[in-house]
TrEMBL record:
<dbReference type="InterPro" id="IPR025474">
    <property type="entry name" value="DUF4325"/>
</dbReference>
<dbReference type="Pfam" id="PF14213">
    <property type="entry name" value="DUF4325"/>
</dbReference>
<feature type="domain" description="DUF4325">
    <location>
        <begin position="25"/>
        <end position="75"/>
    </location>
</feature>
<protein>
    <submittedName>
        <fullName>DUF4325 domain-containing protein</fullName>
    </submittedName>
</protein>
Length: 96
């Protein structure tokens, strides 16, 4: 299943927008879907946005399970750097 981030939220820097994405992703994952999350046209996500979206899901389902089911796509170099930094923080326990 493909979800385009800009179809779900209008920004990628607030907790509110992050939570909105969390609800959409959680619903899609409950249906047993693997998700391709397109970042096309979106700005680089803030840590607040990621905490309220990816962070909540990772805490609920575990990092490995999350990474196997949610696949970012169409990411810029800056977006990829932010996502990589965030995931590395979870691996090291900084976000947990």
């Amino acid at each position: 299943m493909k979800i385009k981030l800009t179809d779900v939220v209008s920004d990628t820097y607030t907790n509110t927008a992050g939570y909105t994405l969390y609800v959409v992703l959680k619903s899609a994952l409950a249906g047993g879907n693997q998700i391709s999350l397109s970042f096309s046209g979106a700005s680089a996500p803030s840590s607040s946005f990621l905490n309220s979206s990816f962070g909540n899901l990772i805490e609920e389902m575990g990092l490995d399970n999350f990474l196997s089911l949610v696949k970012p796509s169409e990411v810029t170099h800056t977006q990829a750097s932010m996502l990589k930094h965030y995931i590395q923080g979870f691996r090291s326990g900084a976000n947990a």
